[in-house]
């Protein structure tokens, strides 16, 4: 029996964006320490530290529970936040998590598992918190709260799917959510982009922040290691 292909769930981290943000922050003469807590806000502390080790920071701020042996080759000292002035720490701006002046570095996407024709008046997901208002198609996207997608995104946050921006509808379940396509052309195997670079027409993590009421840093930090990760 052939083993089925695993569902594609991807996080791509643009280290170039982080370095660009870093250059701006260091140029402001206020940031001296790069914030790598919470696994660099979900971006991968080891990879971010490697990318920033030659930038000239006085130190990298890391979580107390971090296995420092994985960063032992660095030239930049590893420190905890309580030993430095918080005004000198880069914070979420390093990753584009604070405002649109800084480039977002994280793109999250997941595979469309199925597309289903439904009529008007159909309840979606458990609890039927969303009911279709017209004949439409629903796309089932293979990622959910078990992978770190915040449940507050249900019926509020948008994704890029089939070249169109559409809202997540119904309750986000453990490993999937639904999108009302409203005419967008989508097929199983396509990727839905939860958030990424708004310059490319993708929803931004700041859009998700506004939709959910949760800080962008918290949304990014929750992303599970079950995602396939890549870096450029």
Automatic annotation (TrEMBL):
Alphabetical list of InterPro entries matching this protein: Ala_racemase, Ala_racemase/Decarboxylase_C, Ala_racemase_C
GO BP field: D-alanine biosynthetic process
Pfam family, any one: Ala_racemase_C
Obligatory cofactor(s): pyridoxal 5'-phosphate
EC number, UniProt record: 5.1.1.1
Record-linked Gene3D superfamilies: Lyase, Ornithine Decarboxylase, Chain A, domain 1 (2.40.37.10)
Stretches assigned to coiled coil: none
Signal peptide: none
Protein name: Alanine racemase
């Amino acid at each position: 029996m052939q083993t089925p292909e695993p569902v594609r769930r991807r996080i791509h981290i643009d280290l170039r964006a982080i370095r660009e943000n870093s250059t701006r922050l260091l140029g402001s003469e206020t940031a001296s320490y790069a914030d790598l807590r919470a696994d660099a806000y979900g971006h991968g502390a080891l990879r971010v530290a490697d990318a920033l080790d030659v930038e000239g920071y006085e130190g990298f701020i890391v979580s107390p529970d971090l296995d420092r042996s994985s960063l032992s080759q660095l030239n930049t000292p590893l420190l905890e936040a309580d030993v430095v002035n918080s005004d000198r720490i880069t914070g979420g701006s390093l990753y584009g998590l604070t405002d649109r002046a800084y480039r977002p570095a994280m793109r999250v996407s997941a595979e469309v598992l199925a597309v289903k024709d439904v009529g008007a008046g159909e309840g979606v997901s458990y609890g039927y918190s969303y009911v279709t208002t017209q004949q439409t198609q629903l796309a089932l996207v293979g990622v959910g709260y078990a992978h770190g997608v915040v449940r507050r995104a249900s019926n509020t946050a948008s994704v890029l799917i089939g070249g169109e921006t559409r809202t997540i509808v119904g309750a986000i379940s453990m490993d999937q959510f639904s999108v009302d396509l409203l005419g967008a052309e989508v097929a199983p195997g396509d990727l839905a982009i939860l958030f990424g670079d708004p310059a490319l027409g993708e929803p931004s993590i700041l859009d998700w922040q506004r939709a959910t009421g949760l800080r962008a840093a918290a949304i990014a930090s929750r992303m599970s290691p079950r995602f396939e990760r890549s870096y450029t």
